[in-house]
Write a structure and sequence with these properties.
181 residues; alpha+beta; seven-stranded antiparallel β-sheet; 5 helices; globular
Length: 181
């Protein structure tokens, strides 16, 4: 799993204290038990995982934002802290706590501010879901009614679904691009 992320361009940022790190303990206090795969991810990518290329995946269910061939994008995984100024997992927990409650943990960002979430409770515990942040998610501990699409059965499955986007962007209607900084 970790090798796959490195192949996609994510750089390791190991926690020196591992699961004894205060930030790791803070997250476990919020979430309770975390799947071991996610713990391994956080220990090895404590500052998150950003990629050199556009990353896509084909979820178990296509989200409303998926391309015509069923692919969604992944911008980056959140870490326990981030020296690059990107958000960490705690920022997104706070931002979406009213929508996601304690059942869902936002673990990564997709295009348009949509979230990749880890289910923390109930029959779906450990599953990875795409949340369209413009939709009100309707769910209980046993099922999702709307607003979320199943991306993968667990984190390992999700990571193995990730691939570098090989499609060239469609620029057929673009006449001129001016970048003025």
């Amino acid at each position: 799993m970790l090798k796959k992320l490195e192949k996609l361009g994510a750089a390791l940022s190991k926690l020196s204290n591992g699961v004894d790190d205060p930030l790791f303990k803070k997250l476990k206090n919020y979430s309770g038990a975390l799947p071991s795969e996610y713990c391994d991810f956080l220990v090895n990518f404590s500052q998150g995982a950003e990629f050199d290329s556009l990353i896509v995946y084909k979820g178990v269910e296509a989200s409303p934002w998926a391309s015509k061939d069923g692919y969604d994008s992944l911008e980056y995984f959140y870490g326990l802290s981030n020296s690059e100024g990107e958000g960490d997992v705690f920022e997104f927990i706070e931002m979406y706590k009213d929508d996601l409650g304690s059942q869902w943990l936002p673990i990564a960002s997709s295009d348009g501010g949509n979230q990749i979430c880890l289910c923390l409770t109930g029959k779906m515990v450990g599953q990875i879901w795409f949340w369209d942040h413009e939709a009100d998610p309707l769910y209980d501990e046993n099922q999702v009614i709307s607003g979320l699409s199943l991306a993968a059965y667990d984190l390992k499955d999700f990571i193995f679904r990730l691939e570098i986007d090989k499609e060239e962007p469609d620029i057929s209607g673009v006449k001129k691009v001016v970048l003025d900084f």
